[in-house]
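Records of this kind hold a single protein each, on a pair of labelled lines. Below, a sample record shows both lines together.
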Amino acid sequence: MKVIVIAGTHSGVGKTSLATGVMQALRQQGLVVQGFKVGLDFLDPMHHAAATGRPSINLDGWMLTRQQVLDTFHRHTADADIAVVEGVMGLFDSRDGSSEDGSTAQIAKWLGAPVVLVVDCWAMARSVAALVKGYAEFDQDLNLRGLLLNKRYT
């Protein structure tokens, strides 16, 4: 199963808009797209459903065990071509701030999925590189594969 996780540096960076846009574009290419949202959320999955034509499913590493998350993921992707998982808050933000329980990073690692990081570049230039370097080096077990630079100006 092809899967991608779209995560952000923090809330409000544009994860939902970008994830929903990716879902819609993939669907327009003729793919069956299954949307997911990390954590408990009802609004973002409604946008996903509009883009994919399928209900979006929540994946919560705080309330569910690893096996329950994996079972849920596989059950809902059995007839899909690709899954797009939208993260919650910032990539490493968790239920308690000191572990990865419930974080987007945790779910990405459980799924073995590559992560695309959405960065809000408003009023930043070269500092974006330092910020991204920190994200890339923070957890070597995470497969950070791409960036979406949002609110960028030239």
Notes: The mean pLDDT is 95. Residues 61 and 102 are 4 Å apart (CA to CA). The chain is about 35% helix and 20% strand.
